[in-house]
Design brief:
The chain has three domains: 24-100 and 262-520, Zn peptidases (Aminopeptidase, 3-Layer(aba) Sandwich); 108-259, Glucose Oxidase, domain 1 (3-Layer(bba) Sandwich), CATH 3.50.30; 523-707, no CATH class. By secondary structure, it is α/β, with parallel strands linked by helices. Helix 3 (41-52) packs across helix 12 (500-519) and helix 13 runs antiparallel to helix 14 (552-571). It is 36% helix and 21% strand. The longest helix is centred in the middle third of the chain and has 23 residues, at 296-318. The strands form five sheets. Strands 1-11-13-12-16-19-17-18 form an eight-stranded mixed beta sheet. A seven-stranded mixed beta sheet has the order 5-4-10-6-7-8-9. The chain is globular, with a radius of gyration of 27 Å. The structure holds zinc ion.
């Protein structure tokens, strides 16, 4: 039975003959046609080629050049309020839970192998050059000029890796990231530098291409400053073989690099809304502008795709092809996570110099205007975010395109809006691929013709959408991302692998969703709920399969938590359409699982620590594990608290960090610990109550939550 159902669904999906209409969803067809025509995968890719030249480390000259490139394009496209906002970053200032990381720049980095020649050591072979390939120098490397022997320390992350080896004054060759090695190799055993062949994120293709050089990192805040060079697996294998035979290898490393007080820079621009009241509300397009060169898919692709959405919306609005939306649309290009935390917590500043010219064109005077964007106000104005991180992967990268739902702690319908457009793009692109004919093939002239086949998936973490959706901001976020990507964080994440058709389709889904959310009002609610209601059934069906893995006594509680999500997600429409949101009771009758919602007879009564209630404090804002900094770990250590068991817990559909993120998000002073346990069990799989309570009590000790009587 199940098999038959699955096969049928697969056939329907593959043939594009789903029950859903072939007409575009939610927006008038003329608006969709205007977007589909104007959005250009080639324009996006040309901008991507510009960004991919640059090594874009946070606070660096390369990042600044990328910011200037984006700002210049945004101005040329006619966007408003274009600014590069600056946030001081010196290692001491906090932006919510993010300890600012000082800027890091490099001028030079060369690693040579030396050989003996007439009693002298002379350069023989260049193993890596920052100038040619900046990825070879690990981020946060410090200056050095050393000649030293190379010692193989295996992984380099445990003391046993060093037993019987003298690494003092030498360079270690390690399989792990430099940051995972530095405190032992340099701090404890006195090595003078690190050569790493760390591999990128695990996928089926992991370790297969031995020519990849991975982006390397040292720990920003480690007291054991050093330098790290990154080499390919192929080069590392060669060096290891020679060392294993007893050969001695002498290296000469020259590094001119280091941390310095600087700025996080965040580019922003707007399309002002038309409604006198609603223009203070914003729909934000987000991405992240940092990462190693070339970083084409991760994440030049997201940056240029929101830029293309910006260009297109601005042009279509300016020439009257589509109406100016009621709400303001904002575009944001930050360094990942830390830049978003700075933006939403800090006061972004930018000074804009303009010149006055007389009638004959001669220069008269300069004016300097200081722009300040208070983060607290901005966070209040943003009603929803559309975050793109890796959206251009073509066949070579092995990408599956995801439209990702939000966390269960923040019920919202905005992801369903994105899925409505993604499903339409799936159908149209499949129809085109299969028959050569479709009204909206969404194909770029220089791009592929494959069907999109986007998937709608449960919440997964790992980018700036985690910041927006954290309970201290509570901004629902559409997350569009590719996974897997066999070249992520390596020198081969190059523009050649990026498909203009994919960029066009991602831009279409994003632009249509953002524009729709910017015009959503009471009159549109009926059509909206009718469109997105079937997706809820999708979710419930998936939940039933998951339920089989949940112990019986927790199943009602899990169902109840999911039903509550669905009811609240539809109700969240009232945030956009105050009198249009449907009644809870009307919707409740349509949710089979709702019979369990808040039914005390179906759920075990809380007792003991299960009755404890905790509420999150207003400050600090942000998730507790952020970029290059672990707020929880740092503060727990200072308070003498051991690592809570929840942080290393492996659930069916989630693990430590995910449970921790949601336990905190659910702590609103109303749910008791047992209800929080039930909710995270529904989301990530059953977890013992004592783990949840232990974590909440640790959060209380470090001042993140307080007990509510
Ligand atoms: Zn990314």
């Amino acid at each position: 039975m199940r098999r038959w159902v699955c096969t049928t669904v697969a056939i329907l999906a593959a043939s594009g003959m789903t029950a859903r209409a072939q007409k575009p969803p939610l927006l008038p067809e003329k608006d969709v046609a205007a977007l589909a025509n104007e959005l250009s995968g080639e324009t996006a890719k040309r901008n991507l080629e510009g960004l991919a030249r640059l090594h874009r480390q946070r606070g660096s000259q390369g990042f600044h050049a990328a910011a200037e490139l984006v700002a210049e394009r945004a101005r040329a496209y006619g966007l408003s309020d274009v600014a590069i906002l600056q946030f001081p970053a010196d290692g001491k200032i906090f932006y919510g839970t993010q300890r600012s990381r000082p800027a890091w720049d490099a001028e030079r980095g060369e690693l040579w192998e030396l050989r003996e020649h007439e009693g002298m050591r002379v350069p023989e072979h260049l193993l890596g050059s920052y100038e040619a390939e900046p990825v070879v120098l690990a981020e946060d490397s410090e200056s050095a000029d050393v000649t030293a022997a190379l010692v193989d320390v295996g992984n380099g992350t445990s003391e046993s890796d060093y037993s019987g080896k003298d690494v003092k004054g030498k360079i270690v060759l390690a399989a792990a990231q430099p940051g995972a090695v530095q405190d032992l190799a340099v701090g404890k055993f006195g090595a003078v530098g690190i050569l790493s062949y760390a591999q990128n994120q695990k996928t089926a293709w992991w370790g297969e291409d031995e020519n990849l050089i991975r982006w390397g990192h040292l720990e920003t805040f480690s007291p054991n400053k050093t330098f790290g060079f990154m080499v390919s697996l192929k080069m590392a294998r060669g060096l290891r073989e020679r060392l294993a035979k007893g050969e001695s290898i002498t290296l000469h490393a020259v590094v001119k690099a280091g941390q310095h007080p600087g700025y996080y820079e965040v580019v922003t621009a707007t399309i002002p809304g038309a409604d006198p009241k609603l223009k203070d509300e914003e729909i934000a397009f987000s991405c992240h502008l940092d990462h190693q060169r070339p970083g084409a898919n991760d994440n030049a692709s997201g940056c240029v795709t929101i830029l293309e959405a910006a260009r297109t919306l601005q042009k279509l609005i300016a020439n009257g092809a589509i109406a100016r939306p009621a709400r303001t649309i904002r575009f944001i290009w930050p360094p990942e996570i830390e830049g978003t935390l700075a933006l939403l917590n800090g006061n972004g500043r930018s000074s804009i110099t303009s010149a006055t010219k007389s009638d004959d064109g001669t220069l008269q005077s300069f004016h300097e205007k200081l722009i300040v964007v208070p983060g607290v106000e901005l966070a209040r104005r943003i009603k929803a975010a559309i975050h793109m991180d890796m959206v251009g992967g073509g066949l070579e990268t092995k990408a599956v395109f995801h439209v990702t739902r939000g966390p269960m702690s923040l019920p919202s319908f905005v992801h369903d809006v994105a899925w409505a457009f993604a499903e339409f793009a799936n159908e149209q692109s499949y129809k085109f691929a299969a028959t050569g004919k479709a009204e909206y093939p969404l194909v770029a002239p220089e791009g592929g013709k494959e069907p999109l086949r986007a998937e709608y998936l449960p919440y997964s973490m790992g980018s700036d959408h985690d910041v927006y959706q954290d309970s201290s901001f509570g901004i629902p976020s559409i997350y569009m991302n590719d996974w897997p990507d066999r070249y992520i964080h390596t020198n081969f994440d190059s523009a050649a692998n990026i498909d203009p058709t994919k960029l066009k389709r991602a831009a279409f889904i994003g632009a249509a969703s953002g524009y729709y959310l910017a015009i959503l009002n009471d009159e549109r609610v009926e059509q909206l709920t009718a469109t997105i209601w079937p997706y809820r059934i999708h979710r419930v069906a998936g939940s039933e399969e998951r339920d089989l893995q949940v112990p019986k006594e927790q199943r009602f509680a899990a169902d109840s938590a999911r039903a509550e999500y669905d009811l609240s997600a539809i109700e969240a429409i009232s945030g956009f359409a105050p009198s249009g949101a449907p009644e809870r009771e009307k919707r409740r009758s349509m949710i089979p699982l709702a019979k369990y919602a808040n039914d005390p007879a179906q759920t075990a009564k809380a007792s003991g620590d299960g009755v404890l209630k905790f509420a999150r404090k207003r400050e600090p804002k942000g998730p507790l594990a952020v970029f290059g900094y672990d707020y929880f770990g740092d503060h727990a250590k200072a308070a003498g608290i051991g690592t809570p068991k929840l942080l290393s817990y492996e659930g069916f559909w989630g693990a430590g960090e995910e449970y921790a993120y949601e336990v905190l998000n659910f702590a609103n002073g109303k749910r008791n610990a047992q209800e929080i346990r039930d909710a995270v069990s529904a989301e990530y799989g059953p977890v013992p109550l004592e783990f949840v309570v232990e974590y909440l009590k640790a959060l209380e000790k470090i001042g993140i939550v307080e007990q509510v009587k």
